[in-house]
Design a protein that fits this description.
single chain, 243 residues, alpha+beta, three-stranded antiparallel sheet, two-stranded antiparallel ribbon, elongated
């Protein structure tokens, strides 16, 4: 289905049946097309599978023409397979033992991929190479808000300028404070879009929450110990040589 651009592919084994005189008794009639996944989804999957053969784990499946495929290896190297397609032919190769014992060194990108390539070089020899369609236009509903900003800046989202500063979104946006015509905020940032929160914790609150004690004045810091209060002298400020 992926190689057929997202359409359902129903396997069949008999194309036609004829008599010795050439009379056709039976001809396979293909079923009406049924789309399983959108064409752009099949194109993206094909792009991933083609990359796996070009520079990924399936490099041993290369046959000198476009190939898309995927390797597979189970735990402890008990099974290895490669499934791919090229020039209108889809082929799968599995290798393993019937008793499910491990096969040392068995991996989908090794012997199965090489067997796939050896077979497909002959199977596709008289077929024209197929260039996969991997560049498609995504539907608008698949775009995330950030993508929409990149395509059409100012669509109600904060967009950084050339200096990396965030300005206000485009005005006249319903439901956005300050979006009415002529109702520009006093600042040029995002402050008008963020509700004012509580003030930051002050030093008195932090002292109480952490048990920290600050020296009211002087060169020492008042600390509390089990035997009473004492003054701990502060080390002298560092001065570089020659200062």
């Amino acid at each position: 289905a992926v190689s057929d651009k997202g359409a359902l592919v129903t396997p069949y084994g008999i194309r036609k049946v004829t008599t010795t005189e050439g009379e056709v008794l039976y001809t396979h009639n293909p079923e009406p097309p049924q789309i399983l996944v959108a064409q752009y989804v099949a194109a993206e999957i094909t792009d991933l599978l083609q990359t796996a053969v070009n520079i990924g784990t399936g490099r041993a499946a290369q046959i000198g023409r476009p190939v898309a495929g995927k390797t597979g290896t189970t735990t402890s190297d008990k099974d290895g397979w490669f499934l791919g397609f090229s020039s209108g032919i889809t082929t799968g190769v599995w290798m393993g033992r019937d008793d499910a014992r491990a096969v040392p060194g068995l991996q989908g990108g090794a012997a199965p991929a090489r067997a796939f390539a050896a077979y497909m070089r002959i199977a596709t020899a008289k077929r024209p190479p197929e260039v996969f369609e991997t560049t498609v236009q995504l539907p608008n509903w698949t775009l995330e808000p950030d993508d929409e900003v990149n395509l059409a800046p100012g669509g109600g989202y904060a967009v950084p300028d050339a200096n990396g500063q965030f300005g206000n979104p485009t005005r006249d946006q319903p439901g956005i404070p300050g979006s009415a015509p002529g109702d520009e905020p006093a600042n040029s940032g995002n402050e008008d879009l963020v509700p004012a929160g509580p003030p930051a914790a002050n030093d008195d609150f932090l002292d109480q929450a952490t048990g920290r004690r600050r020296a009211p004045s002087g060169d020492g810091v008042r600390v509390r110990s089990g035997t009473g209060n004492r003054t701990r002298p502060q080390p002298p400020a560092f001065e570089p040589p020659g200062a």
